[in-house]
Amino acid sequence: MTARIERPLSPHMQVYRWTLTMALSIVHRATGIALYVGTLLLAWWLIAAASGSAAAYSNVQAFTGSIIGRLVVFGYTWALMHHMLSGVRHFVWDLGFGFKANEREALTWAALIGGIVLTVLIWIIAYAIGGIR
């Protein structure tokens, strides 16, 4: 007869103490998913522009010019910037650097703050040069 072997349970999210590094690693995955969805909006815009149809292009412009559309594009911009900087953070780790606690925290804060700052700068520049009306 086979006896049941008691194995330890694998720890899960309720067991771990949440850290900023852990949260931003999860956010990195979420922004990757958001970029897939946001790229559909970019493809919609490119297809409308390439079609030569003024009506198709004006539909895209009407959506992206609305409050909801601007929030979506702003969120897409943030997801892109955050995912890029978080990817750099993971690349630094892949190279074998940044594993000390203070280095890990610094890289995490840099990705978080850098993503926000870059997003705001991009939008300020876009408004300043007249790209957004």
Automatic annotation (TrEMBL):
Required cofactor names: heme
GO molecular function: electron transfer activity; metal ion binding
Subcellular locations according to the entry: Membrane
Membrane topology of this protein: Multi-pass membrane protein
InterPro entries: SQR/QFR_C/D, Succ_DH_cyt_bsu_CS, Succ_DH_cytb556, SuccDH_FuR_B_TM-su
GO CC, any one term: membrane
Highest taxon of source: Bacteria
Residues involved in heme binding: H83
Keyword check for Nucleotide-binding: no
Cofactor descriptive note: The heme is bound between the two transmembrane subunits.
Alphabetized Pfam families for the sequence: Sdh_cyt
Keyword terms, alphabetized: Heme, Iron, Membrane, Metal-binding, Transmembrane, Transmembrane helix
SUPFAM superfamilies xref list: Fumarate reductase respiratory complex transmembrane subunits
A single GO BP: tricarboxylic acid cycle
Transmembrane region(s): 20-47, 67-85, 106-129
Quaternary structure (record): Part of an enzyme complex containing four subunits: a flavoprotein, an iron-sulfur protein, plus two membrane-anchoring proteins, SdhC and SdhD. The complex can form homotrimers.
Alphabetized NCBIfam families for the sequence: succ_dehyd_cytB
Family in the record: Belongs to the cytochrome b560 family.
PANTHER family (UniProt xref): SUCCINATE DEHYDROGENASE CYTOCHROME B560 SUBUNIT (PTHR10978), SUCCINATE DEHYDROGENASE CYTOCHROME B560 SUBUNIT, MITOCHONDRIAL (PTHR10978:SF5)
Function, in words: Membrane-anchoring subunit of succinate dehydrogenase (SDH).
Full protein name: Succinate dehydrogenase cytochrome b556 subunit
Organism: Bradyrhizobium manausense
